């Protein structure tokens, strides 16, 4: 693979974000969502697809922690992210419960058990995205794992989740119900920007050209897997 000859972390960050903007932010799923093109049934299907990804994300973070050096500066940033998934110790703030409020509003006819799992087949698109992430982390170096979580997910998660929350507020999706978008906006406003900064604080310490190339390749691989996830969801519900 041809080297990108990066000279600074900011160049890596921008290169990944350029691809994310093309594939996700300006991609077919978000474009249709923001334009109000989906039916209420399609929004329900999206909520059910994303449910698998959301409730399995702690497994991704666990795999990332396992890939880290047994040094506080490496594993603590990821553990902090995982602690957020657990509501920082407050059961009412578990992200699984937060997502349930959205799922109940989007798919009120679907039974959800006490563990917040809907009685609905697991999403192949979400399962592929989660499995791809975990498989990568299982053989990743600590630097690759930090880049995968940081640049491959957290860099753009806040913006993307904010856009999803904005799109879900479209009048076309709220004619006969009011979608609860708290889950999406909480991530956009505070959680994801902080999670990315924790990863970035480690990544920016690696300034050599080889390290920058490693960071880019790990980040863009997972970011494009995330792009495939949104494309697959779009194809499955469109």
TrEMBL record:
SUPFAM superfamilies: Heme oxygenase-like
Stored Gene3D superfamilies: Heme oxygenase-like
Any one GO molecular-function label of the UniProt entry: oxidoreductase activity
UniProt KW keywords: Oxidoreductase
Glycoprotein in keyword set: no
Superkingdom classification of source: Bacteria
UniProt keyword Amino-acid biosynthesis present: no
Official protein name in the record: Pyrroloquinoline quinone (PQQ) biosynthesis protein C
Gene source species: Effusibacillus lacus
């Amino acid at each position: 693979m041809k080297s990108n000859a990066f000279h600074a972390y900011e160049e890596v960050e921008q290169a990944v974000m350029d691809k994310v903007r093309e594939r996700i932010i300006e991609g077919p799923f978000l474009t249709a969502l923001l334009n109000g093109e989906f039916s209420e049934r399609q929004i329900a299907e999206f909520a059910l697809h994303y449910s698998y990804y959301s409730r399995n994300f702690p497994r991704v973070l666990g795999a990332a922690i396992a890939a880290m050096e047994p040094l506080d500066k490496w594993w603590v940033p990821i553990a902090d992210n995982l602690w957020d998934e657990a509501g920082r110790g407050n059961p009412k703030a578990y992200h699984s419960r937060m997502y349930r409020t959205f799922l109940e509003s989007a798919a009120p006819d679907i039974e959800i058990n006490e563990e917040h799992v809907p009685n609905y087949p697991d999403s192949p698109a979400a399962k592929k995205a989660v499995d791809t992430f975990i498989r990568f982390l299982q053989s990743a170096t600590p630097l690759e794992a930090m880049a995968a979580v940081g640049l491959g997910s957290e860099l753009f998660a806040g913006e993307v989740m904010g856009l999803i929350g904005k799109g879900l507020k479209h009048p076309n999706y709220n004619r006969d119900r009011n979608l609860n978008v708290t889950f999406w906006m909480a991530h956009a406003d505070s959680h994801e920007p902080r999670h990315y900064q924790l990863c970035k604080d480690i990544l920016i310490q690696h300034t050599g050209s080889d390290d920058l190339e490693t960071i880019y390749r790990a980040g863009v691989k997972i970011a494009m897997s995330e792009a495939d996830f949104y494309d697959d969801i779009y194809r499955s519900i469109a």
